[in-house]
Amino acid sequence: MHSEPAAVGAAPVVRLRGVVKRYGAKTAVDRLDLTAGPGITAVLGPNGAGKSTTVEICEGYRRPEAGTAEVLGLDPVREAAALRPRIGVMLQSGGVYSGARAEEMLRHLAKLHAHPLDVSALIERLGLGSCGRTPYRRLSGGQQQRLALALAVVGRPELVFLDEPTAGLDPQARRATWELLRELRADGVSALLTTHFMDEAEELADDVAIIDAGRVIAQGTPEELCRGGAENTLRFTGRPGLDLHSLLKALPADSAAAELSPGSYRVSGKVDPQLLATVTSWCAQHGVMPDRLSVERHSLEDVFLELTGKELRG
Amino acid sequence: MSTPTAHGERRESYAPRPGAAPLPRMITAQALLETRMLLRNGEQLLLTVVIPTLVLVLFSAVDIVDTGEGEAVDFLAPGVLALAVMSTAFTGQAIATGFERRYGVLKRLGTSPLPRWALMTAKTLSVLVTELLQVALLTVIALALGWSPHGNPAAVLLLLVLGTAAFSGLGLLMAGTLKAEATLAAANLVFLLLLVGGGVLVPLDKFPDAARAALELLPISALSGGLRAVLQDGAAMPWRELGILAVWSVLGLGAAGRFFRWE
User: Fold this and answer.
1) Across the interface, do A112 and B21 touch by the CB < 8 Å criterion?
2) What is the ipTM of this complex?
């Protein structure tokens, strides 16, 4: 297995400093700082947070009005000619001649590169074998999505940019996409992806940057973000109507306990072995069997909601 | 190179090995792809092949339009060659490029190793290849209809090249600034208007003097008039028409270069 994480301390693949981009009166990206990779970095954010603009600045499509952008050590606009062969880009939609066949377009992109991947193997790998001769406009949404991914990686890039890579895919195709991204990562390809899906970020990303209103408001590994958020939660069920006052007295001062619905209890605070022992001994004293006792970690979704006050899928 | 997967099979390695293909290979691949897209598109073929052929055959055989003295085909063949150039370099290129812009193809290629100037070179090559096929086909048909061309082949070539440059500039200007649907409508309308008012079918001396003076300055009139001066009347070098086409080329390509938007 080749799955060592990307070397710690290696040079970042993307470095944005104080980047500003406005569209008319609207500020899409507002003094944004982001350092990413190597490895897989997920950019999470609600609709309109500035995710796509951020990625398009890295790809060289947009010129920032202020600040600096560096991708693989190059300026994406001024040094585009040197950068372009080294990156792969997956657009959110389109990008293919409507009359071109799936395989034809992939073979064409391969011809623009010096050492492309084997096209037939890639088509097989992404389950596009059955539609290689179908014109692009007649492919299903999921097939178009997988072709876009293939187009991004066929040139053996060092870094791929993926804008919502699994939007609109069925669960099986999502899994297949994730597996390919893990293989790419294992082989030393870095990725910067935007996503709406928390599970995608949790499953794939070495690093998650949460963007809201054009700024990065939190960044770290999924574990760091979950730990760094609010406290964790302990739940159990028992007989309804327990008097929680005596429990609260036994718990540390910053804890809370509540009966959410009859017989269903939640204790929140710094959940550590000591707190767990306190709760179970309190239960023993009161002759309560704490059924379905569980410790819940904060999910990325909870962290996101706390930070942005927004649901991700809006 | 291969790497074992989680399932134990060997798979191809994705290890980075970036690099652009050599420029000639990229440009050739792009020009071939663009030509294939054009030849596969039914509406494009209608415009570039069927309409010029029909115009040539129909109006040579049936005496509907008064084409002046001599055989109708001697008047029509140069006009139809001009029409063919316009249909490919202007109408066809404008519509195709407009939709490529709309569907994100230009955006997609914008981050590929293919430089923009190389993409434009490939588009021009694809237009020239298509024109070569059109000219060959129309020449054979016209000869079969009894066409007897005269004149200097170099002058004909120069007219075709300058005509292509002028129409490409105008077509790309339209494709790069208007919405795809607007380009589709406008390019077809212009095609139709110039077919009638550009000396392709109807001799310009059928128009009132004032209108004629203005119409003669159109690129299609300069191209059809220039080709006719050489092929029908045996002129050596139609400088006036070449001059008009050169001005249109500079204006069109200059404006396209300045105002073209890739997305």
Assistant:
1) yes
2) 0.85
